Every structure is written in structure tokens, then in C-alpha cells.
Amino acid sequence: MTQVLNIYDHDRDSAGMTYVYPVISRRAGGVSVGINLNTNNSCNWRCVYCQVPGLKRGGAPEVDLEKLAGELRGFLRDLLQGDFMQRRVPAEARRLNDIALSGNGEPTSAKEFVQVVNLIGEIMEEFDLIGKIKLVLITNGSLIQRAKVREGLRKMASLGGEVWFKLDSAMANGVRRINGTRQSVEKMHDNLLTAALLCPTWLQTCVFEFDGRPPADVERESYLKFIERLKAEDVPLQGVLLYGLARPSMQPEAARLSPLPQEWMLHFSSQIEKRGVAVRLSC
């Protein structure tokens, strides 16, 4: 029986391809065509809520650009001209929302990142998709200072693209606990500023209970102060994509994580909005 896509399953192998996989995105509100450059399940961070099984430290392997192009063209043909939507997508989500550079690790770690963005742009033009759908980069932002990554972001901006920049905590100990990195909050701020000046950028923030407790008051206040700083500095942030847990983690901490009550999410969202920043909430 053909599996119908849903928001709770982002299986990278669902379409039987190496690089391309379709998902129903609750944040995007439709079909998102994922591009997985980290086919080796490697990332330079290790977020406790990550759904990648067998996650390991490292960067993306060499990308077969010809294979990626063939998969993306073939899948878009089936999606837009074939019966994929009828076979695999619930009626309420039958619209193509975006092409997303995401996958099983940090996509900007691919040495071919610029070539990948250029290739996607060419294919979007072939299918008359430029200006009609988004090209989204879902990133932890840690490699933004690399010249090739910045070049890729400029190209994305020319295609009407946007960056979803991960910020789950604005405290050093929170970043270490949640994201498994020692990157400083100040460095994250600087990378965010660079991203926002190159391409329209949203903050992407995941909140959840850890060991049955919500984020501490000091954690929440530090995040709000970070938002206030961005506003004071006139950083051209599009807003915050605030979301909770929808799918189970595949990391050792999985049993310690649980969704937050909707009331908590709504209250935190309102606190961000009071700082003059738009919020898209996905509970």
C-alpha cells in the first residue's frame, strides 16, 4: 500500500532517492521538497531532539550534482505534472510550498553548496517556480562566515529564498545542552547578522520540556533579551518560527524530552511578539 505523507514522518527515504525527499511541513503548510546533502548522517552539531538515526559528527560527503539534478527534475515532474499529490498527499496539503535544503546534517557543510544552490535555481527556472515557491535553507548557521556559504546565500536571495536559522537557546550552557556545541552565543549573533544581511532570515526555535520541566525563567528571559538586542540593532529579521516536538528524537536523550503545553507555547509566543517580532507558532 502506498504510504500517505503526514507531518509526523519526515523519512528521508520515502521517495526512494538519494538526495530528494518529500515531506508535509507543518511550518510550511504544504509539501516541502527536501534536499538531503548529508547522506552520511553527519552533522557538526548534535541536537538532543534530532530525528536522524545513527547521527555522527562530521560534514557532508561529496555531492553527485548530476544525480541530484536528475532526482529533482524527475520528482518535480511527478509532483507537478503527474499524480504524486493524489497518491501521497492529504487533500488539505496538496500544494507545493518550497524546496528546502535540510536533511540529515548541516547542509552548508557540503563543499558543493554554491553549485547546489545554482543548480536548484536553474531547475526552478525550468519549472517556472521562481517567485512562486520558496527556496529555504534550514541551518544551524555555524558556517555562515565561509565565503562559499555567503555566496550561496546571495544566490538564494536572488531566487527569492530565505534562511531558517536555528537558535534554541541564548545561553552558553543551553546551547551546549540542547545543540551539543560550544559555539558562543556572541558568535551565533554575528552569524545571524551576516545571514540576515545576505538573505531574508527567520529564527527557528524549538522549545520542549527536559526531564519534565519547561525552559527555566532565566533561559526564557535570555532569549527575549537576545530578541530585544536584534531589534535595537535593526537586524532585518523576518521573525521567529517557534515550534515544539512533533516527532520522536533518535538521540540518547529522547526519553527525557516531551512537548510543552499549548498554553506555555502561546504565552512565550506572545512575549516574543511584544518585542516587536513576528512569530509563526507550530505547537
Overview of this protein structure:
This protein has eight helices and twelve strands. With 283 residues, it is of the alpha/beta class. It has one domain (20-282): TIM Barrel. Helix 3 links the parallel strand 5 (96-102) and strand 6 (134-139). Helix 3 (113-126) runs parallel beside helix 4 (147-158). The protein starts with 19 loop residues before the first strand and ends with a strand.
Q: What is the structural class?
A: alpha/beta
Count of helix runs: 8
Q: Distance N terminus to C terminus?
A: 30 Å
What is the succession of H and E elements? EEEEHHEHEHEHHEEHEEHE
* CATH architecture term: Alpha-Beta Barrel
**Secondary structure: helix percent:** 25-40%
Largest sheet: 8 strands, mixed
Strand order of the largest sheet: 1-2-5-6-7-8-10-12
Overall number of structural domains? 1
Rg is 18 Å
Topology:
Layout: E1 20-25, E2 30-36, E3 42-43, E4 56-57, H1 65-81, H2 84-88, E5 96-102, H3 113-126, E6 134-139, H4 147-158, E7 162-166, H5 172-179, H6 185-198, E8 201-206, E9 209-210, H7 217-232, E10 237-243, E11 257-258, H8 262-273, E12 279-282
Parallel strand pairs: 2-5, 3-4, 5-6, 6-7, 7-8, 8-10, 10-12
Antiparallel strand pairs: 1-2, 9-11
Helix pairs in contact: 1-3, 3-4
